[in-house]
Every structure is written in C-alpha cells, then in structure tokens.
Specification:
alpha+beta; six-stranded mixed beta sheet; globular; Ig-like_dom; Ig-like_dom_sf; transmembrane; transmembrane helix
Length: 139
C-alpha cells in the first residue's frame, strides 16, 4: 500500500480530474439564437425564439417570463413531458405550436407589450442556467 502522502495526492488528483470533466460536460451548453420581435402588430401572432445547444447535457426546463411573471414552462423529463401555460394578460400561448425552443403567442393586444425573458436550465449535477431578455412593443 502507498504512503499517506501518495494516497492524499491521488485523492486530490481524482478530485481535480472529476472537476475538469464537469467543466468539459457543461462547456457546450450555450445560447444559439434568441429573438423577441422588437415590434408586433396589434391582433397578429408572434413567435419568440430561445434556441440553445445542450452540448451533450440533458435539458431540465425552459421557462418564459413576462415582466418577471412566469407564464410558460416546458419540462421534458418524466412521462408525460410537461408543457404548461399560465394565464397572464397579453400572453396567450398556443401550446400546439410551442415547444422547448419556440413560444408562439396568439392575438397580440396592447398589454402584450413588455419584457420577455427566457430561462433555460440543464439537469444535474450542475443545473447550469442561462437567461436572456428582450423587449417587444405593440404597434
């Protein structure tokens, strides 16, 4: 059996390699495209885009917020996959045309105007999250 110093060094080396692997696994998680239309025509439909590359990780959730209030949630794990839209004035979600990377809003009204934020999180062990915000005006 090795000395205490060798065992301690091997333990630190193992921990360092494990941390390096965690960094490598999450390094690919990135935002590819984000689009909240700057202007939307009253009465029209719009599609918000929050496209990402998981870089080999698994998606935990995608959430959309309007003025800091969550109104859409997509969680692919479990069965069945959960896709939920919450009632909020000005943000009528078309669930059939929405998914993890696109959010379709129907019948834009004046109160649809505001800040929209996408929040994407990956699974354990890191639960790394990124957010991006855009502003939409109604004309």
């Amino acid at each position: 059996m090795g000395s205490d110093k060798t065992m301690c060094w091997n333990g630190w080396l193992h921990l360092l390699l494990l941390n390096s692997l965690l960094i490598i696994t999450t390094a690919g998680f990135r935002l590819v495209k984000f689009d909240v239309p700057r202007f939307a025509v009253l009465g029209s439909d719009v599609t918000l885009i929050c496209q990402f590359d998981l870089g080999g990780d698994r998606l935990y959730s995608v959430k959309w917020y309007k003025e800091h209030v969550e109104f859409y949630r997509y969680i692919p794990s479990g069965w069945p996959m959960m896709q939920t839209a919450y009632q909020i004035e000005g943000a009528t979600v078309d669930l059939a045309r929405s998914d993890d990377q696109r959010l379709h809003l129907r019948n834009i009204i004046l109160s649809s105007e505001g800040n929209y934020r996408c929040e994407v999180s990956i699974e354990a062990p890191s639960f790394q999250t990124f957010t991006k915000t855009g502003v939409m005006q109604v004309i």
